[in-house]
Design brief:
Length: about 90
């Protein structure tokens, strides 16, 4: 279930993803699974962080609130389907 946790860490805007990639590189994680988690998690997290920064710069705090809620909404399906995601990751890691 650490894979789901790593995916959620990638989704969090501002989380130090480079250190996470370094730590994941030291594990026995399959490189294909690593790329999948990295691609699916890094892009939305980076997009949300960029949008949040733009909203703060423009002093548009209501839009910032909505974008933050959307970022949290990305976490919900990963949590709900965590068992299926975990089973899929076990198949890929073999």
């Amino acid at each position: 279930q650490g894979l789901i946790t790593c995916f959620l860490f990638f989704l969090i805007p501002g989380f130090p993803k480079d250190y996470l990639c370094l730590a994941l590189g030291l594990t026995k994680l399959n490189w294909r699974l690593f790329l999948l988690v990295c691609a699916l998690g890094r892009v939305p997290g980076t997009l949300m962080l960029s949008l949040q920064g733009a909203m703060v710069y423009q002093e548009n705090y209501w839009s910032l609130l909505w974008i933050s809620l959307i970022a949290l909404a990305f976490l919900a399906p990963a949590y709900i389907f965590r068992e299926k995601i975990y089973e899929f990751s076990l198949k890929l890691n073999k």
